[in-house]
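Here we describe the complex-level prediction in full. Unlike the single-chain runs in Section 2.1, the two entities below were treated as one system.
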Amino acid sequence: MTSTTYEEGLAPETDLRRQGIRLGDIAFKGIAVVAALGATALLGFIAWKIFDLARPAIQEFGFSFIWTEAWDPVTQQFGALIFIYGTVVTSAIALLIATPLSIAIALFLTEIAPRRVAAPIATMVELLAAIPSVVLGLWGILVFGPWVRDHLEPWIQATPLGWLPVFSGSPSASGIFTAALVLTIMIIPITSAICRELFIRVPRELTDGALALGSTRWEAIRGVMFAYAAPGIVAAVLLGLGRAFGEAIAVNQTIGNRNAIPTSWFEPGDSLGSKIASEYVGATSIQQASSILYLAAILMVISLVTNVVAQFIVVRFERARRAV
Amino acid sequence: VSQLAGTDPYDITVRSNGLRRRRVVEKVVGVLAIGSAVLASGILLLVLGTLVYKGFSQLSLDFFTKSRPLFGETGGIADALVGSALIVGMAMVMAIPMSVLVAIYISEYAGPRVGRALKIVLDVLNGVPAIVVGIFVFGVLVVGHGQSAVFGAFALAILMLPMVARATQEILDVVPRSLRDASFALGVTKWRTTWNIVLPAALGGILTGVVIAVARVAGETAPLLFTTSIAANQVSTNVSEALPTLPVTIFAFSESSDPNEQAAAWAAALVLIAFVLVMNVLAKLFAARKRRQLEGS
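The structure predicted for the assembly as a whole is:
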């Protein structure tokens, strides 16, 4: 496999040489330790620096920034509620649609499809995750958005759900709902890939046992596989949610970028990531610049908490399974 | 596996209560699962189809060799291609050595407890939104120095680090213990064993991780917006200044109302996705070869 010779190890060594080898060992380990510490320090530094840069806004507006519904550079009034609303609502809709779809896809790949069909479908779902967000956003605003406006949103309004205020108003190509659907497309591959792994690892004896007791395949899946994989599914969903919270570009292209909380989900709004992305050309005042950093700090906290909870569940799940 | 119970006259489930309803539920779930899989793969084909349909006719030699003019219709994305290649290349140089070293520390030196903690650190770093990484680099470097391609590369490197480090660490963990033991038995020191035995054995897996990470960051827009977005539309290799890139160009064009710019956005997106897909296929090939090697040995 490699053309290395082992002469160094076998040759009679002088003290100097042996010392050199030991020095090499120490130096190599030292470099590796520094790299590992560096990665940890980087994470800490990012977290600290974002808060540090947001300090002027944090001092000026305090915690009330979080529930203030304002973004007005003229009167210097800034708040995060509009964008928190956009982030939470788009991600929640995406989660509601993507979770059952992802579980269904994972079930199809592991339980229903013969291997020859499962492999290419799995690859295609995987590649869905490889589409850069800016490309998905381009498709979202120029092709998908108009279709949502002309067909999907009028159809929803025609169903009994159309009476809900969130589905009122005139359909539009860009808005909370379009952005949520684009996010759905982005998180399906993440959640379904993890669910697939989970389902593959469910011990066959457990589902076979349920089948032998006379349950249908669906009952075995629901009663045994889901029960066994439940914490993992929760973690998969949370990882997808973390992705949805943090997405800035595709949302920026499709949400409509309006500084207001819309009554209808069909209307334009804005999200945390999207608002930050819009402001890259430069803020005009320190308040505005640090307010954007404050938004970034809120976004970072939300996505980190989501991620850490997911990791925590994964670790506990692994430990529990090892005990079984 | 997909064979259903019930055709056998001795099958006890036939006598169970409400069996017909339960069977219907089972069938419905099966149909929904198939429908979901078809929907997801259909969306991929739809997006790819749209890109080819709207972008392919724009592709020409000029599109790859000329830059975008300030006014007028004809022009290309040569400036963005050069900028993206330089920035992603620099990001690789910054991220790969450090990622591999972090992975080596976790897999070869750290105890289980420290190793687990470092893996969580990497996963959390991976969970930091790209836009936050962008604004972090903006706050630390761009404020005071101005935008530059190097800062853009640094932001992309931060995104690559956890991806490459985790992929490398996972492959190092499956390099057989016996390879290391054989090397130690010959009196080879630990660092030489790692460098000459373990790393070469893991090379295929590391390459897979690198290729996937490159495919991912080549399409990232968010970290570049704050670091290298305000650039002249000409081919330049001066990395100390902001350079145009493919994702930022697509982003800017996608929000334009000019049909020519929208057409250019489709073509640029087609080029970007072609690159991303080729990289993903490459990664699959590397991974498959590696698996054959490990199974063969």
